[in-house]
Write a structure and sequence with these properties.
Layout (H helix, E strand, L loop, with lengths): L9 H6 L1 H6 L2 H10 L11 E4 L1 H4 L5 H13 L2 H4 L3 E3 L26 H10 L3 E7 L15 H11 L3 E5 L8 H14 L5 E4 L17 E3 L12 E2 L4 E2 L2 H6 L13 E3 L11 H13 L4 E3 L8 H7 L2 H7 L8 E6 L2 E7 L5 E7 L5 E5 L6 E3 L4 E3 L7 E4 L4 E5 L4 E5 L3 E8 L1
Parallel strand pairs: 1-2, 1-10, 2-3, 3-4, 4-5, 5-6, 6-9
Antiparallel strand pairs: 7-8, 11-12, 12-13, 13-20, 14-19, 15-16, 17-18, 17-20
């Protein structure tokens, strides 16, 4: 999606945690001021969104087929709940009364009928709009129509709103999102609110209590380690996005999730890159929003997206994002505290060649100052389970040795 990537707010993001520590207070101030306590997302939201594959080329028949495949493929049973239409669902202008309307050519049955179809399949229905005068693709935005648009969404049965940030001119991001949050609340319908201003205004500092998830970066592209320049803006690779997460992990948790953007699994990266991409989103406790063509999904893509052990790690009730404990020659170690005293340990090979891992547990104690948890392997022994291989692989008494292919991961869970 076309984005005008503003410089406002990026300096603090790039300079790290010192800035965050100084500005942590507004989180609580805003949460109290808005008083939005709904518990709509105690764990990271999971779903599917139309943008990555279809952009504005959507219509009712295609999407009904996608809903059917969503269910038949096992995505719903794996925990994915939301089916979200991104930009391009509406007519190019509001009607004579100033109301949004679904494009009658794309949705001849109307949006209420489509939402009812989504609900009939045991799914929740999501929709898109933008805080500016126009959406990123040039359709009518919500600026000045927040309350009437919210009432319209509620009448259709919308459960999720993705709210973008194009064509906003001099709007204040925090106030614009607060206004829309209050408009949604005023309908009386629980609507999960997804803020999408690309992290330019540091939403992790103020969006807790405004929305349940908020984009922490610019748009993703289906490249593992190379950004894609789009003329006036840059789409970010998987690894570029991953590198932005450690500085904001302390702002992640139940009902306020850092959103590193939608998944590109199944959209052209290699199988190992898809696996690594999905793994990193799961250990970061990120929202899992698939963006592939479900009708053409390979068995390998399906096995990645519906891996129950990975999904369980993402959905762990603590909601604590992983931290990066080491990085040597492109081989990184990421640690995620889990509930019940467990840990997830991910070895990421971000280099373009295989890496030999020799991890001596006794020399690598775990110590997370954020969760105030640790593990000293000279004092305690943990069982090791390889999540992708789906087998136990010994204990922390012995070094863990394995060669990791380029752009791949090994993910272990540790149980005392």
């Amino acid at each position: 999606m076309y984005k005008r990537i503003a410089l406002t707010g990026l300096l603090g993001f790039l300079t790290g945690t010192a800035v965050f520590a100084q500005e942590e207070a507004p989180v609580q101030v805003q949460k109290s001021a808005n008083a939005k306590v709904t518990n709509l997302a105690p764990t990271p939201p999971m779903g599917w969104n139309s943008w990555n594959t279809f952009q504005t080329r959507i219509d009712e028949k295609l999407l009904r087929d996608m809903v059917d495949t969503y269910v038949a493929s096992g995505m719903r049973d794996a925990g994915y709940q939301y089916f979200t239409l991104d930009d391009g669902w509406m007519s190019m202008e509001r009607d004579k009364n100033g109301q949004l309307e679904a494009d009658p050519k794309k949705f001849p049955s109307g949006m209420k009928a489509f939402a009812d179809y989504v609900h009939s399949k045991g799914l929740k229905f999501g929709i898109y709009n933008c805080a500016g005068d126009r959406t990123c693709a040039g359709y009518p935005g919500t600026r000045g129509h927040e309350y009437e648009d919210a009432r319209l969404y509620a009448s259709w049965g919308v459960d999720f709103l993705k709210y973008d940030w194009c064509n906003t001119d001099s709007l204040n991001a925090r106030e614009a999102y607060i206004t829309m949050a209050r408009a949604l609340q005023a309908t009386g319908r629980p609507v999960l609110f997804s803020l999408c201003e690309w992290g330019n205004h540091q939403p992790w500092l103020w969006a807790n209590g405004v929305g349940e998830m908020y984009r922490a970066t610019g748009d993703i592209t289906a490249n593992f380690d190379k950004d894609k320049h789009m003329g006036t803006w840059t789409a970010l690779s998987v690894l570029t996005i991953v590198d932005k997460q450690p500085a904001i992990r302390q702002f992640n948790g139940p009902n306020h999730w850092n959103d590193p953007d939608m998944l590109e699994v199944g959209n052209g990266m290699s199988p190992t890159e898809d696996k690594a991409h999905f793994t990193m989103w799961c250990i970061l406790s990120a929202p899992l929003v698939a963006g592939n063509d479900l009708r053409k999904m390979s068995e390998q893509t399906k096995s990645i997206l519906t891996n129950k052990e990975l999904v369980a790690i993402d959905q762990d009730k603590l909601g604590i994002a992983a931290y990066r404990s080491s990085a040597v020659n492109g081989l990184e170690t990421w640690i995620k505290p889990l509930s019940n005293g467990k840990w997830a340990v991910c070895f990421l090979n971000r280099s373009d060649k295989p890496q030999a891992l020799n991890h001596v547990w006794a020399q690598n104690a775990l110590n997370d100052s954020f969760s105030k948890r640790g593990a000293d392997f000279t004092q305690s022994t943990y069982k090791l389970h390889d999540v992708w291989a789906k087998k136990d692989v010994g204990t922390t008494k012995k070094a863990f040795r394995q060669t990791i292919p380029a752009h791949d991961v090994v993910l272990l869970t540790l149980t005392k």
